[in-house]
Amino acid sequence: MSTIAVPSPVPSSDNDAESLKKALQVRHGRMVTTRAASAGWRADKGALTRILCRRTAAQRAAIRRAYAFLYREPLLNCFRYKLSRHCLLSLDFWKAMILWTMDPAERDANLVHEALKKKQRDETYYMSVLIEMLVRLVSSYRYEGDECVVDMNVVRMEASQLAEAIKKKKQPHGEDEFVRIVTTRSKSQLRATFQRYREDHGSDIAEDIDSHCSGQFGRMLKTAVWCLTSPEKHFAEVIRHSILGLGTYEDMLTRVIVSRAEIDMGQIREEYKVRYKTTVTRDVVGDTSFGYKGFLLALVGRED
């Protein structure tokens, strides 16, 4: 469930592009010259948020085209220029605004690229398994059409195979039954299998993974299970982890809210409320500030 509040009627993409241009060249309510703006004048972050955070991906794409046509400059380049001349108070805002304004596929590709560039700090014993599982997850074909039929015979068999693989602590390898099942079965087939697992063994499969599979491999399996069948659980946990403690993992918080706002942020908010007895809104307000806080709250949406 999307949490984007699109106004009605929606301004034209040309009007939005013009408003963005003005917002990028305003300080303290006054228009400034392009030369002054290039010297580091602040933008009206509130106006940028009110426009872009209330537009769908298709509408944002139209705004980008209009902006490039009207001003002969890509909108993202303007944001990147602001980011390159940031002060600490606006760094997170500009990074978040760039990600949000991107096409969703473009954004996901960018995030994957950045993640793969980071130095691996996890234990190396499971690294070859992690890489192979990720490759299989992104390359496997899963039929998810309306005619997708759940095979209950396979459900019973694979629920048993998963229990054996988890509780006997099999050493992970490329042909491990767990890896094979989660990287090839449809989401509806997996949901039925995990439900049968719960009925047969009296516990949730994610709980048993936590109990029997430690380290990076265990975290990888649990993440795969949640992302494939109940992603709101995974993303609620990521948001909570990003704001716990003395500091905030802004990049992690941004990534989740930006990437899920148009998909299932409504479900994530509800899962968060049930599990942590507070709201995403309350925790965002308590751990962020200024334009960045306003940006995140606009995407999270209103909560009761």
UniProtKB/TrEMBL annotation:
Alphabetized UniProt keyword annotations: Annexin, Repeat
GO BP, sorted A to Z: response to cold; response to heat; response to salt stress; response to water deprivation
SUPFAM superfamilies given in the database record: Annexin
One Gene Ontology molecular-function label: calcium-dependent phospholipid binding
Organism of provenance: Oryza meridionalis
Record's protein name: Annexin
Gene3D superfamilies linked to this entry: Annexin
One Gene Ontology cellular component: cytoplasm
InterPro entries recorded: Annexin_repeat (IPR018502), Annexin_repeat_CS (IPR018252), Annexin_sf (IPR037104)
